[in-house]
Amino acid sequence: MGASTVSSVELADVARRLSGDRFDDYAQRGLGRAYEEYVARRRRAVGGLALAVNGRPIPSFYALLAEPELKFESGEVRLEGTPAAPDWEFLVPFQKVVLHEDGSAELHGPGGTAPRRAIARLLLREHYLVRSRADESASVKASPPARMPGLVGTIDQGITICRALPVVPLEVALLLYLAEERARFELDLVHAAVLADPRAGRLAGSRRVRRSSRVAWGLDRRIGRGHLSLLAARSLEVLVESNGLTSIELGHIFGGVREMVDSALQTLVRQRYATFDPRTGLYRARTESFLPPAQPGAAPPPAPVRPELRTGVQELIAAADARATCPLCGKPLPESPSALLCEDCAQKVGIS
Questions:
Q1: How many domains, the chain?
Q2: Contact 129/114 with Cβ under 8 angstroms?
Q3: pLDDT tens profile 137-175
């Protein structure tokens, strides 16, 4: 398996190396609380995590952070162990990911299959931003307060930002943008493990709607702004890959207090990332929010025949981007569909 669990003492040593005198008693207590809370919420893993940088194995991601003179040129993320088939639910199976300095990557599947080219990015999940007592006092007076960015770009940029702020990551998401879809792998850096998707075993795989890399990139950029709580961000990711879920279903997926899930979903509605249908209790992602704006001079889409329908044409096009199901009724579309909607809904909306 991968390296052993990193202790809170080892994390404190890394933070002290990165921040020097700023790592006072106040910062040490904050890191200790963050560590204990993270360990208490430990999720199921699909396998161990082994890392290598510039062709050299490293015991943990923290060993890389603690060596400021080490420049990232290439890397490898390897899954250790042989996960059972159910563990791959909602994940793209892989054996290793080879990373390059320019942000490109190759995804190697299990069984020696041909590698798939991808663009790799790093998204901070759970982390501790080193804050001395003086830093905290200055932040309270700041207007507006500084926000911690989530999407830190390429692997090299992520390492540079973690060292400079400094921030101690506990969990990160490795995002791989493939030709047709985005693969997301959440890496538990404390326990050196690749985590299972939270939906596995709690949501039927048939409920998943695969989105294109274009939609996923827009989603990740919004999350990377750091304006959403971790629970709201994860709820949004799940909503985007579905035709709608209730707060009860999302509460079952993420666990915890249902009121917290309700609060996160209401935040998404207020920020216009999601809609709520009071008749069905379903929350749906506004997938058009994650697409690039229309080019200047482009012809506007035709108005629907029935404007009382839940969404406009632009949202329908965005929702059907994955070519998986009809975004209005949820009916599966035929393989290689020639239309955005199923036959019945196309007639109702007036789109051929």
A1: 2
A2: no
A3: 877 666 555 555 556 688 988 998 899 889 999 999 999
